[in-house]
Amino acid sequence: MLAKYSLLGLFAGSFSLAALPFYPPCDSPIYCYGDLLHAVQMAKLFADDKTFVDKPTKRPVAQVLAAFESIGGINATQEALKTFVAENFAEEGQELKQVDNLPQFDPNPEFLHGVHDPLLREFGRTVHGYWKSLIREQDLTKLCDGCVSSMLPLKYHFVVPGGRFREIYYWDTYFTLEGLLISGLKDIAKSNIKDLLDFVDMFGFVPNGARVYYQDRSQPPMLALMVQLYDRYAGGDDFALKALPQLLTEYEYWAKYHSATVRASDGDHMLSRYIVTTDQPRPEAYSSDYALAHSVSTDSKRQAQIYADMAAGAESGWDYSSRWVRDPLAPPDKILHGIRTSHVVPVELNTILYFNERYIEVLLRRRGNREEADEFRSKAEARLKAIQSVFYDSNSGLYYDFILNDDNSGRGNQSDIFSPASVWPYWWVGNNVDDNGAQKAFSFVGEVLAKNPGGIPATLINTGQQWDAPNAWPPLQFITIQGAMETGNKKLATDIAQAYVNNVFCAWYKTGGSIPNMLKQLPGMSDTGHMFAKYNSTTVGAQSGSGKYSAQVGFGWTNGILLWVMDNFGDVLKTPVCPGIEIEIQSTKATSSAPQAASVHRSVKSLTLSSGKWMVDNFQGQIEILL
């Protein structure tokens, strides 16, 4: 398959898509480009385009392509295509096997001892048990000789998010790891990271997810964060130092292919943005991308730019949001007509890269590479200065994305769209920003929470896109809590944590959740409780239905953040109140022990709460306040 290094020709500071060469995401004539892909996806044989591109073949590629031509190729009828797919493709998920043997799994994990509320303690135990249904290994034995799959090779065990997401995803994995490590599953956590490190060796970066059709884009580069998180928990081995070459390789990829020059009042700054080089619809969303591009323009260059910006939106992880469009107030069916992701220089991406630069510096010093470490310190200091100059709004204390003009000048203006990304920098540099600004920022967050009992929404604009209001995403609650803690807003952090627990628990209970000997299932339920990918911020216990696909259950990052919240706030969390439902607790004895003194595991609480604390511990006195 094609590696992204061979595909991209971006230059730092350049951002005109018209001048770029475009390529499909990989070299597969089945999964990434060509008449077969176009015909099947435009025939709409499945409700979700991802279904087809996740199917392995039943025959070698040449035979599949010949069979396609025999039914008329691009001109085949829908009925003929339906039969063709049934005869030539197997069920999706054939390449995966659930991992049942988990030597480190403990039904009574240490963190439960710190959860004082009996109902939440048993709910935490239940969610802890869900890991057993989400851990996979790759098994290609069911594929015939010469048959192919869209799965990328994976040597180690990994966690799938759930639902339609049958593979490991990049930035999801960080939030999943927070929970895995709290659950004591260090080996599985390490295996996830090793799979991602292998991707860097293969491609020079971590793809969006473990599919060939994701090879043209990445996701928020949180690999260094994962390595640092594991290093804090595991300690004692040299895993982080062994990962340093891959962290350097990935860093260079983002520096080379995602840079943009921003011209500010205090000079030019080199920052980063999401950008993807492609002239094709995303294979897993082919029909909707194709329809969008052709509804906007008949010009092939304009269509290619739409495809590229849709892919860049997917690279952001926020697919899709008013952050990436020209007119956030456009009608819902027109909102994506103005997609312009590559024109947006995002707060969170540059904050993540700032952390990466700082952490790589630490590892280089640990290895004795003083000169190279000094270079990364300089890079980090330059980026921090740029973050404060370009994104920071002193009036509100919030950070806003920067929107580049269309003239390639590097000039532009701050966005006015609030999102949890607006407080992301406070997680890592909160103690180095003017305290008055921080308090203004989190006072506003408190006002948002007061109007959203289910948590902080992705933005304050309801566009019908899933990364906008009223959707409350688990990772965004995590980030906002981290920023609040770093700036001394502990009550607000606790309130957001409680809102998250309320929403997750109530949605689970309303979809059939129960706890033996403690909580009976609601009458008339056939399901056994669902953990969703996102929730409604305005209605506690309501899954959110807006977005590009149906509600997904599982769910890796939801479980991970819930366990993290319980580990760090378990002594103050209260029994959830679910609107319209009376919770009748049968017993408080169940299977758990009474709350005990803080466990050995919770001795790392001060670290798990904050990479920000880690930043201060490692760089106190080195980071200037740049306001």
UniProtKB/TrEMBL annotation:
<comment type="similarity">
    <text>Belongs to the glycosyl hydrolase 37 family.</text>
</comment>
<dbReference type="GO" id="GO:0005993">
    <property type="term" value="P:trehalose catabolic process"/>
</dbReference>
<keyword id="KW-0378">Hydrolase</keyword>
<feature type="signal peptide">
    <location>
        <begin position="1"/>
        <end position="18"/>
    </location>
</feature>
<keyword id="KW-0732">Signal</keyword>
<dbReference type="GO" id="GO:0004555">
    <property type="term" value="F:alpha,alpha-trehalase activity"/>
</dbReference>
<dbReference type="InterPro" id="IPR008928">
    <property type="entry name" value="6-hairpin_glycosidase_sf"/>
</dbReference>
<protein>
    <recommendedName>
        <fullName>Trehalase</fullName>
        <ecNumber>3.2.1.28</ecNumber>
    </recommendedName>
</protein>
<keyword id="KW-0326">Glycosidase</keyword>
<dbReference type="InterPro" id="IPR001661">
    <property type="entry name" value="Glyco_hydro_37"/>
</dbReference>
<dbReference type="InterPro" id="IPR012341">
    <property type="entry name" value="6hp_glycosidase-like_sf"/>
</dbReference>
<dbReference type="Pfam" id="PF01204">
    <property type="entry name" value="Trehalase"/>
</dbReference>
<dbReference type="InterPro" id="IPR018232">
    <property type="entry name" value="Glyco_hydro_37_CS"/>
</dbReference>
